[in-house]
Amino acid sequence: MRVVMFGYQTWGHRTLQALLESEHDVVLVVTHPKSEHAYEKIWSDSVADLAEEHGVPVLIRNRPDDEELFERLKEADPDIIVANNWRTWIPPRIFGLPRHGTLNVHDSLLPKYAGFSPLIWALINGEPEVGVTAHMMNDELDAGDIVRQEAVPVGPADTATDLFHKTVDLIAPVTIGALGLIASGQTEFTRQDRSQASFFHKRADEDSRIDWSWPAEDLERLVRAQSEPYPSAYTFHRGKRLDVLASFVSEGRYGGTPGRIFYREGDGVVIVAGADARTGRNHGLAITRVRTEDGRELPAAEYFTSMGGYLTTRP
After folding, report:
1. Which stretches make up the Formyl transferase N-terminal domain (predicted)?
2. Are the beta carbons of 250 and 270 closer than 8 angstroms?
3. How confident is the model at residue 119 (pLDDT cuts 50, 70, 90)?
4. pTM above 0.85, yes or no
């Protein structure tokens, strides 16, 4: 099939690479300009550079809503558009233009985790698995019929970075497998159960701020979800920002006021956590590694030279 590809960052790069290695003919690529957004500078392999290396025409757009783009798409005469990590709304006259419509590739197990940063949100929420879904685009975001979907389990120590590497390897088989079904003439696919749908917003600095009223299990997943190269989970100590780089849920149960720097356990320093901490039934978050405001990384046991005092949500 003749394919136009809309995509950005490493997700779009992997999609384009798979298309270029397939039997399909990539006739045009549309991608976004470089961004300084914290989450868009991560996994930022260039779709434009890859397309140009293979002689594929490239258009750079923030939004696909101008007449020049529409005319170029009509001239390209695509059988299908394939989109992955396109960051703005694609209007119906665009996604409905190709003979077979538009296939969108999304890094979640739709209908759950439509929208942005699905791997991070899924890890924070304790999901047992994550994956990649290829679905037909319609006028509702990430809501079209599912053509192909593959899942991988979330391990007990997995970080968001681990899940990225697990799921990015699914892009090629999911995309090319879905295109094979469409090229074979199949037109009926699996409708999404919209009663199970969830939609998540872009992550920002505020979303990495530690709230010590959360249970320790949730905080430990937040730390893993904000693994390098993502912005770290953070708290404040004596008015200065402190990034929490590694932690575990304490074996012991510690009561008191959430945020209290309480006890050494193994290699960690236990911070009281959770709304039920005062009952004595909650575990704490044992921090093992931190980064100070001036960029020093060190074991928590070296940073916290004595117990007592509090970590706070704000300075």
Report:
1. 1-169
2. yes
3. very high
4. yes
